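[scheduler] slot 2 assigned
[scheduler] job type: sequence-to-structure, two independent chains
[scheduler] chain ordering preserved from manifest
[runner] begin chain α
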Amino acid sequence: MEIAGYIASVFIGITLGLIGGGGSILTVPVLVYLFSIDAVAAITYSLFIVGATSVVGSVSYFNKGLVDLKTAVFFGIPSVLSVFLTRIYLLPAIPNQIFSTTDFTITKDLVLLLLFAILMIFASYSMIRKRKFADEHLNQNRKTNYIKIISWGLFIGMITGLIGAGGGFLIIPALVNLLRLPMKTAIGTSLIIISINSLTGFLFSLSYISVRWNLVLSITAIAIAGILIGSYMASKIDGKKLKPIFGWFVLAMGFYIIIRETLIK
């Protein structure tokens, strides 16, 4: 199972390199089901793995001038604040055993995995459907809605802090439609924001999570190799064409987690 986990880790990076998001969608299930790590620790490990991998992936976009640093900072500030509040106050406040009967027990891990599965299903929908982003030229006459941007940043930060996901598939549409960034710049900027959110979320968790550094660093190294492959493939393959295929896979994984955690156990 661990060998399968290391092989799957390559695809975490490839996904990030090709479509600018989706890495954490794969990382948490890989850690939970292939490496047998509990959900809370898996989410924390995912933050480091995806954050570090996104940093490496953003370098090629930065070198090509496809990163809007001002937007990354502006969008990232409310996200980081939300990640901080979620990781320091909200997540530790959730009891390990939330509800129990003679036949069924609702634990913190179960709730987080079910929330993660629901997010996967929503994410798959956004990947499968043909999203029509607003025309860039028409958008030039439209005022930027800063309240929406801040609200979106806070929401994404909370999702990232709570279940270690909510990156590219939420950030990219916001950057394109609310801030009118070209798609490739939105992907590069998204990787920067994912890096900031994920790594700060990981740092905020170190006070109450023990990290298996050998495992985390080995998976991160493999994922980084994957994102280098994905970034190279992105120049040869249109990531938009692969996105619906990945979306169907994410949809199947979301339903698998729900069935596995509620019916099979």
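[runner] end chain α
[runner] begin chain β
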Amino acid sequence: MYVCICHGLNDHQIKQAVCWGASRAAEVYKHFGVRPQCGRCVSYVCERLAYHKKMPAHR
């Protein structure tokens, strides 16, 4: 599922960023070399970060 339409980031990519150490939304965007444009996705990126950080297989 797409999370950030402006940059085409999806949930799988957020999971990937978490696996590489991202723990904040800004770090997810930085991981992909982008910055939020419209800002609508930031709260959902935070939500997905929290979800993926809780999962034991991702630590």
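[runner] end chain β
[qc] chain β: The chain has a mean pLDDT of 90.
[scheduler] slot 2 released
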